[in-house]
Write a structure and sequence with these properties.
single chain; alpha+beta; three-stranded antiparallel β-sheet; 3 helices; 3 strands; elongated; hydrolase; ClpS; ATP-dependent Clp protease adapter protein ClpS; peptidase activity
């Protein structure tokens, strides 16, 4: 016979993390080269990273002057997708533009 009002006993799951935190974030970087045009970099910043023309121009000038510039901060999968999109567009247009990601 079973007792209808008795609750089953539960044991805590072993191996589960006690806290669920925010996913790690990564900044996506564009790197300067001697061949990719400034106009193409601005276009990529507007279309891939959804920057305004003013923001895109500012980031492009930072890339040109400092050799690298931050395009945005994203979870890993989003950052990887954006990097792949940059590389695909650059290769299609014949540019060696390089993007990378770095943990924040």
């Amino acid at each position: 016979m079973t007792t209808p009002n008795k609750r089953p006993e539960f044991e805590p799951e072993i191996g589960l993390e006690d806290e669920v935190g925010e996913p790690r974030k990564y900044k996506v970087l564009l790197h300067n080269d001697d061949y990719t045009t400034m106009d193409f970099v601005v276009q990529v910043l507007i279309e891939v990273f959804r920057k305004s023309e003013t923001e895109a121009t500012h980031i492009m000038l930072t890339i040109h002057e400092k050799g690298v510039g931050t395009c945005g901060i994203y979870p890993a999968e989003v950052a990887e997708t954006k990097i792949n999109e940059v590389h695909t567009r650059a290769r299609r247009e014949g540019f060696p533009l390089r993007a990378s990601m770095e943990e924040v």
